Amino acid sequence: MSREEFDDYCRNLTSTTNVIQWGNASVWKVGGKIFAICSHWGVGETQKISFKCSDLSYQVLCELPGITPAPYLARAKWVQIADPDAMSEQDVKDYIRTAHNIIAQKLTQKMRAELGLDLLKKS
């Protein structure tokens, strides 16, 4: 998944915002809280996608080749796809959508209602 495809997908999720920070990383948020990041660090480094996941998904994904605990965010159960072939594009999209839902569910009921998120399923 290219950065443009990543951004297009995240842009189409409910009530998302995007900021560019941390050395040109594309950081996606819902209700002001981060749910997914696309970054590119260092010369020769490949693009990496990171996202929040459930405790169980975190355990399973971290055992797969090409997926690691996300730097600085692993304690909060984030993974990083370091190898673009580690996961299919559809699986990446599914996990990003789930990350969006996980973070949206952590918002207050009032904020979820204001953002039109009150109908999202719990993950």
From TrEMBL:
<dbReference type="Pfam" id="PF04237">
    <property type="entry name" value="YjbR"/>
</dbReference>
<dbReference type="InterPro" id="IPR058532">
    <property type="entry name" value="YjbR/MT2646/Rv2570-like"/>
</dbReference>
<dbReference type="InterPro" id="IPR038056">
    <property type="entry name" value="YjbR-like_sf"/>
</dbReference>
<protein>
    <recommendedName>
        <fullName>MmcQ/YjbR family DNA-binding protein</fullName>
    </recommendedName>
</protein>
<dbReference type="InterPro" id="IPR007351">
    <property type="entry name" value="YjbR"/>
</dbReference>
